[in-house]
Every structure is written in structure tokens, then in C-alpha cells.
Amino acid sequence: MHLALLTDARYVRPAAPGDGYHGNIHTEDRLLSEALAHHGVTTRRVDWADAAVDWARFDAAVFRTTWNYADHYVAFRRWLDAVPVPLVNAAVIIRENVDKRYLLALEAAGVAIVPTRLVERGAAADLDAVLGAAGWDEAVMKPAVSGGARNTYRVRRGEGGERFAALVAEEAMLVQPFVHDVMAGGEVSVMVFGGRVSHAVRKIAKTGDFRVQDDHGGTVHAHVTTIDEVAFAERAVAACALPPVYARVDLVRDGAGALALMELELVEPELFLRMAPGAAPAFAAAIVGALRG
């Protein structure tokens, strides 16, 4: 079996010396490729959007670092409909997960999420009205289709209304209450392969910020999961309409200490394979098991 490991054009070439961010991407793919090799599977990293890719060379493709898809969303959806090989995760899962409306479906299925209000593109965009109706004085607004904290802002009642209106004119937006525990305890990301928890990390924002992504100065630390985190993560994945091969379950705790889902990442999450010795083998086994049945 020969698999394409999907990335985007920025990360196809090897990292330059000293580029730790880019280097981590290649380290993670190397770990996965070595683990897949133990199953007789070979790999090659390819840019998902490269029209020159000969898909006949591959038996399937695994999403890894297609981190520009939100910036090329229409082209990405067309590619998703046309690519002639099986995808991991499956295309039907990807189509649903690229839009954060999936949070509302999971909530309806009984998964506790950070409370979320959806404002559709072109709708009346009165941020104060949204916050007032929800009873929130402070919130985070973010696009329904996004990544890397693009157009994600912390706002308070009485401010941010013009920016919100401008964004809603262009795309659907989500509004969520600001979770203060993120500032103190960060965000826990639990990796789930084949329905079972593999490992976890805790992502901490830089001082004064709430965005935990390393693009914005956040740091990543190994994390030993608690019993309730494991149960919550596996329950969230099990609530999906179709079982994903891999998932990253991003969790926070509310003011009462209860767990809530921030996001369920099923497209191209960083999986931090380098931070747990058994992670790459577990991921590889889940991929091979799904493809070989």
C-alpha cells in the first residue's frame, strides 16, 4: 500500500536550519511514515492542491497539514469531491468538520460544548444583541470555517460591534462566552485513534493572550489525562455520525470545573506524535486497520 500524506505547498520541501515550526511538521510525518513502514506501507508527502499529483500512484491519502484549506475553501471543496482515492478521515467526515456548525450537532447528541451562537453570513450583525440575549459580558468571536485562530477576537459588550458586522458580511461567525480557565489552565488536546485515547497535551497561551496556538506565542506541554478527560474525549468521538480514524478533542473547563468541548478537530489537526513514544504506532495501526478493514 502506498499512501499520500497530505500537506500544503508551504511545507512540501524540507525545513530550513533553525526553523523549528517547519521542522516539527517533517518530524511528525517521519514518525508516522516509519510506523506505517512496519505494516508494509510506503508514503510520500504531497501538496493537496498540486494539479500535477498523479493520484494513480496512491492507494489512499491521509490528511496531515493541509493548513491552507480555509483560505482556499471553494477549491478545497472541489478537490474533496474529485480526488479519486480513499481519504483518511473519509471525505464525508471532512465535509462536515470543516464547518464549526458541527458543534451544534454534537451538542444535540449530548456532548457538552462551550455554549455557541451562530450568526449566518449576511444576517443582522448586532454583537451586543447576541451577547445580551445569551447573558454574556465577554465573548470570543470566530469564523465558522477557519483555522489557526484566523479572525478570532476576544470582545466585551459595547465593543467590537463594527468588526463583527464587517466579518458577518463576509462569512458566518460563531460567538462563544470567554472561558477564563484558558488564561490560567490552558486548553487540553486529547488525541484519539480508532476510538481510543492515545495521548494528550496541554496548550498554554502566552501571558496576556487567550490564543493557545504556537502561531500566536502559545506553548505545548505533555499532559497526563484524567479519567474524566479520557471518558469525555472518547464519548465525543463516539457521538460522530461516522467514526473517525483520528481525532483531536480540544477541551476546557468551565467556571464550575466541568469539561466542555472547544473543538473536535477531524481534518488536519496537529497530533503531537513527537510528544508520546507510542503515538505514531497507534496512529499508523488505526490508519491501516481502517483501510484494510
Question: How many structural domains?
Answer: 3
**Tally of DSSP β-strands:** 13
CATH architecture of the largest domain: 2-Layer Sandwich
Number of helices: 9
Indicate the proportion of strand residues: 15-25%
User: What is the structural class?
Assistant: alpha+beta
Broad shape: globular
Report strand order across the widest sheet.
Answer: 11-10-9-12-13
* Fraction in helix: 25-40%
The CATH superfamily of the largest domain bears the name ATP-grasp fold, B domain
Q: Detail the poorly predicted runs.
A: none
Report the average pLDDT across residues: 92
> What value does the Rg take, in angstroms?
19 Å
Characterization of this structure:
There is one protein chain. The two termini are about 15 Å apart. The mean pLDDT is about 90. It contains nine helices and 13 strands. It folds into three domains: about 1-95, Rossmann fold; about 100-110 and about 180-265, D-amino Acid Aminotransferase, Chain A, domain 1; about 115-175, Dna Ligase, domain 1 (2-Layer Sandwich). The protein is about 30% helix and about 25% strand. With about 290 residues, it is of the alpha+beta class. It has a five-stranded antiparallel β-sheet. Strands 2-1-3-4 form a four-stranded parallel β-sheet, with helices on one face. Helix 1 (about 20-35) packs across helix 9.
